[in-house]
Amino acid sequence: MSQLSRRSFISTSAVFIGTALTTKKTLAATAPTKWSDTCDVLVLGGGAAGMAAAVSAKEAGAGKVIVVEKNPTLFLNSTTYSMGQFSASGSRVMKDNGVKDPGAKVFAEEIMKGGHQKNDPLLVKIYAEHSGETIDWLSGMGLPFRLMPNPAYGVLRTHDLGVPQTGARHIEALKKRADALGIQIVTSCPAKELITNEDRSEVLGAECIKDKKPFFIKTTKGVIIATGGFMSNGKLVDNYLPDFKGALSCAGPSAQGDGLRMAQKIGAQTQFMGNGAVYCYGVPVDKEKRRGLIFRGHIMNIYGSISVGPDGKRFVRDELGATTAGIAASRKGYDKTFVIATEAQLKSFMDKDKTQVIGWSQERFNKELEENKIFAKKADTIAELADKLGINKANLLKTISDYNGYVKTGKDLEFDRKALKGGFEKGPFYGFKAQYVAMANLGGLKPGESLEIVDVYDKPIKHLYAVGEALGGVHGDSYLSGNSIGASLTIGRYIGKLIAKNKPINQ
After folding, report:
1. Which residues is 209 bridged to in the sheet?
2. Quick check: 378 and 432 in contact, CB under 8 A?
3. What confidence category does residue 15 fall into, taking pLDDT thresholds of 50, 70 and 90?
């Protein structure tokens, strides 16, 4: 490779999902003779990360800022489909609630531990150190954060927005601020290609599609790719995450990998592409279209329920995060998982947390408990429940017997579980049959020390940045609840301020 020029290497070798890019013409859009518009900062994508970047860039002194969004509204992205939770260190909310926060360093260590030390240390450091101030920034826009428990952390770090629990509230607040700042938001305007200089070492702008015609936007300070991930593109999920082949998706339908495709076509490097936030507690909505919702079984497990595989055996420390459980289930070769609960455990979950299935009201969940049509089953005995769920009955009976013994002694001999909140002695019992559902890809474009995206030679592509799911590395190989939105907003805000300070591109 060292004997090839950068340009010739890209021209002959660049690949996106097995499709060779073999000609100069296919690699990048050429600069137009006339630009349609010009701005200081161009943001491709209007989700949490992109809007945070746009607003912070403008606040930091950037001139004209343009956000282009492929959807007709900002409320059809993966942010809107999320609960909007944000884990952080050092926020005023934590201080006001008397949380003794050991600091950003410990938060970073917790993130690294959750990602099994496979995270990008630079991105983790930025997220941990600037998360608290980002919460405060959003609080200043009127978002009413509160704290909620999360077993991944030693203190209360996860910030929640209360009811309604939706990431759309982040978009609402940021759009209101963007409008006040005069940021130009162009909807129904998908980005098509990045426009670069001749040797593709510097990004000059982007070709978009507006009113079904090419729309060329020139930038003087840089382009931020905030187009989201690829979790709603079944082919890409199956290609990059073969252990979860066939997984449903709960990401925004527009999460098709657009930004990755555009950047790879000009030689950008990716990292951690085989890592994804795939929950093992998914509820099917449309199997043909591979759409699903997240059942928060891992949260119910905090109140005492347990997770088992089709073989009737436990496979993970039950209160761990849903993506960690997903990895454990895939290693067992399970194609589905089950959560078993007593009536008391289920009631505690529903009393203390108003969201059981993300996208459903509690009333809708109650209807499922009554009708047992989609994924819930109720039985008076464990043996009857095993039959209804299709679980190995003998193994499940032994699992429950062993677990009841652990509850009595206060020691889980299999997984050292901490939340031993009640045994399974008396019915009725509830079982929830779940399958894999993909929420976010954890891999994406690779940043250099300057946070500009690097090429295949690890050299920065000048003035090209990525945020949110388009940026790979902050999570390692397993997502911790609250870190996707948290990192998207924090790093988006950080890069927005950074790009505002760039010297104008010499075009």
Report:
1. 214
2. no
3. very low
Phi, psi of 263 (to 5 degrees): -70, -40
And the tokens for 453?
């995206």
CA distance 494 to 56: 8
Q: Which residues pair with 291 in a beta bridge?
A: 249, 286
Tell me: the pLDDT tens digits for 89-126? 999 999 999 999 999 999 999 999 999 999 999 999 99
CB 478 within 8 A of CB 274: no
Q: What is the pTM of this model?
A: 0.85
Q: Which two tokens stand for residue 446?
A: 């690779």
Q: What is the pLDDT of residues 248-307, one digit of tens each?
A: 999 888 899 999 999 999 999 999 999 998 999 999 999 999 999 999 999 999 999 999
> For residue 154, is it left (φ>0), alpha (ψ between -120 and 50) or beta?
alpha
| Burial of residue 323 (number of CB atoms within 10 Å: 0-12, 13-18, 19+) | buried
What is the pLDDT confidence band of residue 506, given thresholds at 50, 70 and 90?
A: low
* Closest alpha carbon to 505 in 138, 20, 112, 35: 35
Strand partners, 210: 213
User: Per DSSP, what are the bridge partners of residue 432?
Assistant: 339, 376
**Res. 388: pLDDT tops 70:** yes
The pLDDT value recorded for residue 459 is 97
- Nearest Cα neighbor of 256 from 278, 277, 228 is 228
Angle between helices 393-409 and 382-389 (to 10 degrees): 130
Phi, psi of 31 (to 5 degrees): -60, 135
**Residues 225 and 465: beta-carbon distance below 8 Å:** yes
CB–CB of 270/236 below 8 Å?
A: no
Residue 166 near residue 48, CB atoms below 8 Å: no
Domains present along the chain, CATH in parentheses: 6-272+443-500 (3.50.50.60), 276-438 (3.90.700.10)
Burial class of residue 221, CB neighbours in 10 A (0-12, 13-18, 19+)? buried
pLDDT, averaged across the chain = 91
244: left (phi over 0), alpha (psi -120 to 50) or beta: alpha
DSSP 103-148: -HHHHHHHHHHHTTT-S-HHHHHHHHHHHHHHHHHHHTTT---EEE
**Percentage of residues in the chain having pLDDT higher than 90:** 81
Separation of alpha carbons 444 and 431, rounded Å: 36
Place of tokens 């990048």: 28
pLDDT at 180 over 80: yes
pLDDT at 24 over 50: no
